[in-house]
UniProtKB/TrEMBL annotation:
One of its GO terms (molecular function) is hydrolase activity. It comes from Ancylomarina salipaludis. This is MBL fold metallo-hydrolase. Pfam families: Lactamase_B. Belongs to the metallo-beta-lactamase superfamily. Class-B beta-lactamase family. GO terms for biological process: antibiotic catabolic process. The lineage of its organism: Bacteria, Pseudomonadati, Bacteroidota, Bacteroidia, Marinilabiliales. The keyword Hydrolase applies. Residues 48-223 form the Metallo-beta-lactamase domain. PANTHER family: ACYL-COENZYME A THIOESTERASE MBLAC2, METALLO-BETA-LACTAMASE DOMAIN-CONTAINING. Keywords: Hydrolase. The keyword Hydrolase applies. InterPro entries: Metallo-B-lactamas, NDM-1-like, RibonucZ/Hydroxyglut_hydro.
Amino acid sequence: MLMRGLCLIFFLLFLICTACQKKDNNWFTIEKLDHKTYRIREKQSSQNNSSYLIVGDKEALLFDSGSGENKTGDIKALVDSLVGVPVTLLHSHFHFDHIGNSNAFPEIALPDLPALQTRLDQDSCIHLSEKESLSPETYILKIKKRCPLNTEFDLGNRKISIYHTPGHSPWSFTIVDKRGSYLFVGDLAYKGLLLVNNLEEYQNSLNQLIHLCDSSYQIYAAHGNEDLLYSDLDKIRLALKAFQNTKPSPRKEIELFGNRKEMYVIDGIPFIYDVTGNYLK
Ligand SMILES: [Zn+2]
């Protein structure tokens, strides 16, 4: 009788623990893209974010650390549960919805771009401005590593390259995995309203990726539920080129982060063009 009672108590405790665990992690949804690549979605976040975990035999790279809007769930614990190798965090860019939870990661890398590296203070920290993070919150990132640019480097049986792809923001980066035929584009391309900071740079960045890749590539964006096709990169590029050439009137005014902004739609591509890059104003 006593034994049955104890078993029942343990069973109930097990159920409670399992329920708590589920609740703790339900903010993040994991999608296994292959045995060494994961998409970590935040379907409830205001911007419907995705971060990507790219795993090698020796180390892994987390491309963005989430929106930071999660009240439940722990992206660091989640990432650690998925891999058995050290994880380095790299940001696709510094907007607030990509740098949340950053301080949970002891190893943060900065791409080896001289203009960025010179911004590190004596403690190897980079202080982000409101315009860079699009948030009045103060963000200070402690940088431990630098990642090479424009050349392949090895995570252990998995080589990737990082490219500087400005246009959405001055400090935007894309990861190319040639062997896996993956492209992780951050906010340079996704299905939805694009934010364009620099027209010329945006087109150049897309052009660079179009030449680096081909139609066999999977394009993984940081927002939305729908993946892009390789041909979408050129569609966006051509829409921006047409905009630059014709300077059409805006389709309508919309609200973005509490401010009125002019939205353009060209060949089905919606975007906001803000040369200041400060979409908060
Ligand atoms: Zn962004």
